[in-house]
Amino acid sequence: MLRMRTLPTGPIEPCLPTKTDALPSGGLWVHEIKHDGFRIIARKNGVQVRLYSRPGNDLTGRFPLIVETLVNLRTRSCIIDGEAVACDDNGLLVFDRLPRQQVKFSRGNIYLRDQNRCQYCWKKFSSSELSLDHVVPISRGGKSTWENVVCACLPCNVRKGNKLLSECEMRLRRHPARPKWHPLHRLQGRTYPEIWKNFLDEAYWNVELRS
After folding, report:
1. pLDDT digit string (tens) for 110-123?
2. What's the 3-state SS for 137-154?
3. Burial degree of 27 (CB within 10 A; 0-12, 13-18, 19+)
4. What average pLDDT does range 19-40 have in this prediction?
């Protein structure tokens, strides 16, 4: 009896090319044009569709047209390894038309944006010597946004306290803003004091901050 192999749920490893010295030939080979886009692994199970990137990130919400097309595909289940591309009116590939995910508002990305510099004294510190500061304190109507949260060294943070900049004679060296890059922020290779050992998981750095 033929048994169907059940694949694990979630993302799977994509097919990778094999290096060779000569191009394959013969009628059993199918060649395709290599497009420059997002590598996507699509998984369909009934009406449920999930899209994953090569590292396993969930891209389902970013490509609703692909999801809709796969939902209507006449098959109960399938896995499709392909490339998400966007073309202009002439059918030419335009990478900038692909939907881009906004940079997550997280501790790690704020440190990355500010390059581990205190935004008040402009000195560079290790991550363990920095903290996050609300330019306009929450107690005074400030929000947890890219435009209101900056890196600050511990002395500057203590000096500013719960005051507005005009009240403590301090100023920002650079106006904070939402970054436009798409970081792949990781913690490998960093060293921290022993007292930080409870915060070394990536969730601490990569979880999205809220007001």
Report:
1. 998 999 999 999 99
2. CHHHCCCCCCCCEEEEEH
3. exposed
4. 78
What confidence score (pLDDT) does residue 97 get? Answer: 67
User: If you average pLDDT over every residue of the chain, what do you get?
Assistant: 80
DSSP string, the chain: ---PPPPPSS--PPP-----SS---STT--------SEEEEEEEETTEEEEE-TT--B-GGG-HHHHHHHHTSSSSEEEEEEEE--B-TTS-B-GGGS--PPPP-BHHHHHHHTTTB-TTT--B--GGGEEEEESS-GGGT--SSTTTEEEEEHHHHHHHTT--HHHHT---SS------S------TT----GGGGGG-SHHHHHSBP--
Global pTM reads 0.49
Task: Please list the residues that pair with 51 across neighbouring strands.
Answer: 42
Residue positions counted in the chain: 211
Q: What domains are there in the chain, each with its CATH number?
A: 38-97 (3.30.470.30), 107-206 (1.10.30)
Query: Please, which pLDDT band fits residue 37 given cuts at 50, 70 and 90?
Result: confident
In SS3 terms, 80-115 reads as EEEEECCECCCCCECHHHCCCCCCCCEHHHHHHHCC
Interatomic CA distance for residues 176 and 144, integer angstroms: 12
Q: Between residues 185 and 37, which one has the greater pLDDT?
A: 37
